[in-house]
UniProtKB/TrEMBL annotation:
GO terms for molecular function: hydrolase activity. Keywords: Hydrolase. It comes from Actinomycetospora cinnamomea. Coiled coil: none annotated. This is GTP cyclohydrolase II. NCBIfam families: MSMEG_0572_fam (TIGR04044). Signal peptide: none annotated.
Length: 161
């Protein structure tokens, strides 16, 4: 039988070094921008939520930050989420996408959602998107990437299928 080594941890114990930071804490310089492109299915993994948290952190570092949702990512902007009624959180974290996008927008971040993927693929209307989300033409997804390139912006892209 294997011998267990160490003491049992208690709630609140640190099991790794959370204090050491290896890289400099970079802050945006005047006018710097960031674009986070997400093509990911909500609730099919942690990618979408982690990218929203990262976008919020980038925004807090002073970057003019935009999230571009396309493909299944457009579903993250749904304002019709909830059960049994819209806005009801049927389980803890059930409105995590909505809450994080709202926090991001409240702090000055910009959110764009592809109206093609919303309507054609998922039957979601523009009025079904969270207030503050800007619906965009599907051709704008590429042009947003080209704009980011021209601006020399930080670009993060996540694709999941």
């Amino acid at each position: 039988m294997a011998q267990i080594v160490g003491e049992r941890v208690s709630k609140g114990d640190a099991i790794v070094d959370y204090e050491e930071k290896v890289f400099d804490d970079i802050q945006a310089e005047q006018g710097e921008k960031a674009y986070i492109f997400m093509h990911t299915v909500p609730f099919e993994g942690s990618v979408g939520l982690v990218n929203m948290l990262t976008a919020t952190r980038v925004n807090r570092k002073g970057f003019d930050t935009s999230i571009v949702l396309f493909g299944p990512g457009s579903l993250m902007a749904s304002a019709t989420r909830g059960y049994p009624k819209v806005g009801d959180e049927a389980f803890p974290g059930g409105l995590g996408y909505n809450n994080q996008l709202q926090t991001f927008m409240n702090e000055g971040g910009h959110v764009y959602a592809c109206r093609f993927s919303a309507a054609m693929l998922y039957g979601m209307r523009e009025v079904d998107m969270l207030e503050g989300v800007k619906p965009i033409n599907p051709l704008d997804v590429l042009d947003a990437q080209l704009t980011a390139r021209r601006e020399g912006a930080l670009v993060m892209q996540t694709w999941t299928v």
